[in-house]
Structure formats: C-alpha cells, structure tokens
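Hey team,

Filing this mostly as a record. A colleague (T.K.) asked me to run one chain through the structure pipeline before their review meeting, and I want the input and output archived in the tracker in case anyone asks later how it was produced. No errors, nothing strange. Just documentation.

Input sequence:
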Amino acid sequence: MARKPAAALKPLQLAAAAPYGVVLRALEAPPAAAPTAAELWAAVHLSSPDPAAQLERLALRAAEYTPRVSLEPPDGVLLEVRGSLQLFAGVAGLERALREECRQLGIAVVLAFAPTPLAALVLARAHRPLAALDPAQLVSTLAPLPLKALRWPEEIRARLARSGVRTIGAALRLPRAAFARRFGIAQLATLDALTGRAPDLRRAYQAPVRFRRRCELSCELEDHAAILQSLAPLFAALGEFLTSRQCGVAGLECLLTHRHSPATHCVLRLATPAADIRRLEELLGERLSALPLPEPVRGCELRSDELVPYRPECPHLWQPGEHGGGVVGEASGLLERLRARLGEDAVYGLTLLEGHRPEKAWGRTGPPAAAGTAARRAARQAAAALHRPAHRRPLWLLPAPLSLAVRDGLPRRRGLLRLIGEPERIETGWWDGEEIERDYYTATDSRGVLLWVFRERQAPHHWYLHGVFG
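Output structure:
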C-alpha cells in the first residue's frame, strides 16, 4: 500500500478527554493561498544601545503617519501604512519621511516593508532594509533569512540546527505535521502568521492623553493677578476636557512667554489626582504669586500631565478630625498648599531605613503623597512598632545629641529627670567607624515632657538628650 505523502499529514491536537484516554484530532492547516495586498506594514527596528527607552518617543511620532501603531518591545515599532502611501507619494516617500523623523530623534533604525506585520519585523531584525511589497514573492524574500530573526527559544533553534534547518525557508519546507509534533504548534502558528496563512492581530498603541492649550494676550502683563485672570479661559477648557473623559490630573505646567527672555515655567504637583478646576486654579495662583518674572508676559500656555482615572472621595460619616473623618482630603490639601507656597523642595517625605542607630534609621524621600489605604496601613504598623514597650522611639530627633548635666549619676534638665521603664541597649556600627554603645531610656522632666535620653556604656558614661516625644 502506498504511504500518504508526509506533506499531507496533519498535526495532532489534544481534544476533550474520553473516559479511558485522550482523543486526538487532526489540526487543520490554514489555506495555502498567498496573503492579500489589503495591508502593508512598516517595521522600525531600533539598533541603538538602549532601544527600550526610545520606543515611546518613536511611537508618538509614528502616530502622526498612521493610527495603527503597535509596540514590539524591546526594540521594534510596527505601522500599518497602506492608507498613508498616497500622502507620501508611495513607499519611497514614506520611507524618507520616517528616516527623517528617526534622525531628528537621534535614533539609529532599520526600516522594512511587508504585507504582514511579522514579516516586516523579521526583515528589519535581520537588517535587511527590503520592501517585500508583492505577497506572491513574500516567501522567497523571507527564505534566506536566519531563524534567529524569529526569536524562537534557543533550545528550539538548536534542535532545528542539528537537523540542518537554519533558515526560514528550510523551516517552511518541513512537513507541517512533523514540525508541529517535534517543535510545537506555537512555532507552526508563527510561520503561518509570517507568511499570511493566519491573521496576525496586533495590540494598538494608545498615546497618553494630555491637555495643552495656548492663548496670546492682547497686551503685555506684569501683575500676577491679571496673568491668573487671563488663564481663566484655559482653566475652563481644562475643566471641560477632564469632565468629558472622567479623568483627573496629578500635575500642571504653565508656560509664560516673554518678548526677549526665555519662557517662565510654573510647575504644580498635586498630592492626589484632582479634577476640581477651582482648586487647581487656586493652587496655581499660589505658585504664580511667588514666581519672579524677568519681563512682562505676552502669552500663556497650560499643559497637563498624563490623565489618570479620577475617583472622587466619598463623604465621611464623621466630620474632619472626628474618628479620622476626612483625614485623606485634609492631608492632601495641606500638602498641596505648603508645596505651592514654599516650593517643591521645602516639603518632603520620610522613610524608615534598616538601621539600628537612631540617626540612621530614617531617610528623606521625594514629595509625600496623600495617605491612601496602603499608606495608612503602613503608618499604623510603624506606629505600632514605635509604641512597643521595648522599642518606643520618638519621631522628633535632635540634629545632634545634647549633653546633659549629671548629679549623683542621674541626668538633669530643668531639674532631675525621672527614668521610666527598662533601657533599650544599642551596640552597632563597628564596621564603618561610627560605632555606638548606648543605653536608651524614656524620661520625664519637671514639666511632664517625655524625653528620649541615653547613657554611654563606655567611660566616663555621659548622659545625652537625643529626642522628644510628641
């Protein structure tokens, strides 16, 4: 009996489990018809040392040429450009425009065009700046390319190499059934998407939405109140923009242009996302009032950070200050006012560090955020740790320990100090030359103020004040 040709065999796929085993059924192969010319994809392969950092910038520029842009991390961007060819006088004109955009961004790229997205990407990865425009010639164009351009797992490529298969053309010539059995259905599906046998759907890149509006003034202004009043139409447009999208902003930037001097930047950072235009206008006014102007203002521009989902705070049963009611909103407003009036660097957050020495157990962080659920939980845990009997420490530490007077071996400050509880012994820091050996006590003075004092364990056993409890 004549055997069926191997090329006609169909790969097997697991189906529903039977009572006594597993049912196998044939995996239908896609039709072998050539892909249609309905689509044309351009692939941009970034050959710079750090391509991942440039993907977003390149995708934003690519969105000006076509609405169908896809990111292929870490070093690729895909564009469907069939509908854009007539705007650039064909593929050559579009290629020149894309290369010029990449040159302005300072990015080294390889461009390739093909009827399928994966084919264009493979051509660019293989550094073959070709244009495989004819679907009938797609396979012959891809055949000499190495399998490395498909980025299959190293183990599969090594097994194929041992069988003498090192190019895409050699992989396409293998029997489909045997290929699927030995190397997996996923790799067979990749070949089908490469040649157009199966659809290749790509996730569209969505550029971050930001607000940007500009107005030219009818006359030059120097008064801060008048400048803020001229920004009112821009804030009204921002309110409509946020309301229509049900979003908020975490920051604003105002640019004030002058006749001869560079533009003045006024940046506002918020503790929590906000959509209340009156609140944003008031905070920006605080920042503007403290901003020196080199020259009168000729124009204004208002920009926003990337939009974020806005969830208004639910009203509390308790009034602010009662059982923690309204704490989040009050804290956010206080942080924003302090930063608007004093500057970004004047308000910062604190974080706990892994260190036993009190002066090295905390550090300064960036601008603090509002207390959310996770932050409140962390604060409660930290407070619980600070109030354990053996580890109770004050939040207010002196810049340097203050030496105390001693009488009869006991410390004095506005009279004799009364020591409370057992001491906490800290011996650490021998590895970096800042070794300490101290016994810390909680003490109270004649006015009832709780102090944190320590006694050196080394002679002459001086007493020092290191912190004050709130």
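Quick notes for T.K.: The chain is about 30% helix and 30% strand. The first strand starts at residue 12 and ends at 18.
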